[in-house]
Amino acid sequence: MASPALDFKDLVVLITGAGGGIGKAYAHFYGARGAKVVINDVSLEAAQSAVDEIVKAGGQAVPAVGSVTEGQAVVDQAVKAYGTVHVLINNAGILRDTSFKKMTDAQFDAIVAVHLKGAYSMTKAVWPLMRQQKFGRVINTASPAGVYGNLGQANYSAAKMGLTAFSKSLSMEGAKYNITSNAIVPVAASAMTATVMPEDVLRSLSPDHIAPLVGVLTAKNGPKVAGRIFELGAGFYSELRWERAEGVIYKTDSSFTASAVAARWGQVMDFTRNTHPVPGNPEEMSRVIEAQPSLPPNAQGPKIDYKGKTVIITGAGAGLGRTYALYYATLGANVVVNDVSKANADAVVAEVNAAGGKGVAAVCSAEEGDAIVKAGLDAFGSVHALVCNAGILRDKAFVNMTEAMWDDVIKVHLRGTYRCCKAVWPIFQAQKFGRILVTASPNAVYGAHGQANYGTAKAAIIGFCKTLAIEGSRANVLVNCIAPRAGTAMTATVWPKEMLETFKPEFVAPVVAFLTSPECTETGTFYETFGGFAAQMRWERTQGVAFPNDKPVSPEELAANWDKVTSFKQSTHPASAGESFIQISENFGTTSKPNRESEINEKDTEEIKHAKRNPPQGQDFTYTQRDVMLYNLGIGAHATELNNTYENAESFGALPTFGVVPQFISSSTIDLGKIVPNFNPAKLLHGEQYLKIHGPIPTEGTLTNEPRIFEALDKGKAASVTTIVETRDKATGKLIFENHSTVFIRGSGGFGGQQKGDDRGAATAANAAPKRAPDAVVEEKTSEDQAAIYRLSGDYNPLHIDPQFAAIGGFKKPILHGLCSMGFAGRHIINTYGPFSDIKVRFVGTVVPGETLVTEMWKEGDKVLFQVKVKERDAPALANAAVTLVNGGQLKSKL
Ligand SMILES: CCCCCCC[C@@H](O)CC(=O)SCCNC(=O)CCNC(=O)[C@H](O)C(C)(C)COP(=O)(O)OP(=O)(O)OC[C@H]1O[C@@H](n2cnc3c(N)ncnc32)[C@H](O)[C@@H]1OP(=O)(O)O
């Protein structure tokens, strides 16, 4: 049941990058729901055309041209047109994809500028308006590339992940003013994916599936949801959150070493008993304070030493960085002590030398990655590990944050990390060894007041780490991330003594030294660590809710299912963009329940109306591999084609036209005598067939059928009746096949009903054969026993075996099943062009078992048009026929 109408009337909604793609889909959504839409784009032409479309459809919209990095100028245009902004959707984006090895500073900086600075600049400009009117909704657009990492997108991953924390911080600061902010992780087709994805996948990933969730989050009367992350696409809607392993509290005495950390690392990563820490929860730290005194000394694991190894530590002049440097020194490392302060760097170098290591200072900003790495190379000849630790704080409430405060924090943390990683990357790649540890923060996970800049930079580092890990693993360059907590010079004045004692920076160092050692084989992982405690973090995703893929759900219906979107009861843990995509792609091709009333035609007789409104109960179809082999043989597969005829063959499976078999039990039992007059089964011929294969075909199992009468046409002397059957996997409910079957019943016309059928797209396409000679022709003789074999797959119509029955139908001999001829043609197409995802044919002439079928084919884009003739009589058998090739036929080369 849908929830009450969500109210968007007169909300001023500013959407960045709305000249195309998802942004434009939002614009249409809000325009249709009575909002005042402000369409931002860098292109006036694109913005204006989106505006025109909305106005034409009866909505209100204005363009606001300009770069998102000039937020105030864009917002001024919105205010000029509509007085304020209620909803801001930070959607604009660009891509500069390339391997990290080849990434230029310009490519990194451009992405950070548009996605991060753009979101900052736009939000900063609307913030005072939202505070003043005590209403604001901000949506930030993250990406699977950000939350899971993605090859060739180190820059984009960083920026997108950064926006998750930006939303959290904004939500905390906006709460008092009824301002919420959420991040979405959309999976949708865009101008970019259009070039790399097949058409049906693009259709399934329509951007129209994203707007309903954004609608729920921004409606005047929607649920109050703030600081959360939602992953969605293709009609699937879910929420993401961080989950933490129970972790280990190591005793922080002298037995707390990198080797002790290694000894129990499995437990650090063990999610059997997981937790979901609440931001700012005081129990978090008191748990560690209470546990420490009674812990036994730590058992030691494999020896970890750094003799002959060089470790670069940025920001090592004080705090955590200094303690790392000193700890590495005790393990015999060469340490490059980077700091902006020469005095601090020199002092730590002296301490490193005294502690058993060798130190060298690299006095410069963390952004000077090349200079820092050069210092290490000059002093020690090589570099083996990099710990990116340098950071600054420029805490300020977002309303008072200056551009410089934003820029400085992003630069030191994110750009500094990028520049140092970039500088060590070729060295690590060449020596086929490298360990990188980057530093995020709990505030990247939980958000924090006054740290929109810092939280964003730190979250960006998590996304950056994930992509680097993917790109580095082949060369044994492992990249991990920590969110440490420790007492600082600042907390020294406010924390009680026992906290200062428990959360010393020294109590993070052994974890760091383990993570950069050869003994650590993890990559792309992320940990919280403080006071001897360490625990891995991973994504947890709700089971989510999937709506039919063929049309976008309404925001009301989505809101009515909000508990399913957000319930973590049966959660999953996608660890990569690929894993995340599986559940989304499972929703491809799912269709809405048909609205039977809409299929009623005014000319339908009462009998037809009744039949349409009261479809028969579908029947289950259970089958085994034997049935698959029997079907394949029935349509001419040969014993030598083992994948079709031998259950132990490596790629054993059903030929795609097997899809007509499971539904037959349901469509053939429809009582046609109750629908058309003078029904005589001997006068029934199969007229047309359309089959769409939605999912992989199981080689055995139970499928369910949902049949319905779609139309019954009066063709004068004859009637034609079309049934549609959806066939699903009984266990999963996943749609596997959709069949449209038309039977032509001679002598049953003249009842005065609808004469012309409705357009059902590919199922009714004319598929006229081109004038040119066929691109390919395959000829194959059917067996005299073909119908006798084929009927064992379920169509026991006596027309195909019983001469007397055939004679009543007007035939000299039993004729071949139409679907058998279609199966032959399907094989001919597969063998010529590869597998297909749908097939449509019209049966235009009968075939007698033993006759030779000639399949003529014309390739037109991703379709193959075809027709089949009977060679002996030069008579047409199948016409108006076509298939859609899987992946445009590219699979053929892989077969
Ligand atoms: C799986 C789900 C359940 C399916 C149950 C199937 C059970 C099976 O056991 C049965 C079979 O397999 S039978 C064997 C396969 N079928 C055949 O051999 C039929 C061959 N076709 C014919 O003989 C003629 O085309 C014929 C007789 C069909 C039509 O020829 P004509 O009477 O000459 O028709 P025509 O004058 O050309 O056109 C009249 C109107 O009908 C439409 N039409 C024509 N062929 C059609 C066809 N094959 N399917 C659907 N509609 C068809 C025409 O468009 C025309 O419509 P309109 O008047 O609006 O222009």
From TrEMBL:
Keywords: Fatty acid metabolism, Lipid metabolism, Lyase, NADP, Oxidoreductase, Peroxisome. GO terms for biological process: fatty acid beta-oxidation. PROSITE patterns: ADH_SHORT. Residues 594-609 have a biased composition (Basic and acidic residues). Pathway: Lipid metabolism; fatty acid beta-oxidation. Residues 11-190 form the Ketoreductase domain. Its main location: other. Signal peptide: none annotated. SUPFAM superfamilies: NAD(P)-binding Rossmann-fold domains, Thioesterase/thiol ester dehydrase-isomerase. One of its GO terms (molecular function) is enoyl-CoA hydratase activity. Residues 762-771 have a biased composition (Low complexity). It is found in: Peroxisome. Residues 586-621, 748-774 are annotated as: Disordered. InterPro entries: HotDog_dom_sf, KR_dom, MaoC-like_dom, MFE-2_N, NAD(P)-bd_dom_sf, Peroxisomal_Beta-Oxidation, Sc_DH/Rdtase_CS, SDR_fam. Coiled coil: none annotated. It comes from the Eukaryota. The keyword Cell membrane does not apply. It holds the Pfam family MFE-2_hydrat-2_N. One of its GO terms (cellular component) is peroxisome. This is Ketoreductase domain-containing protein.
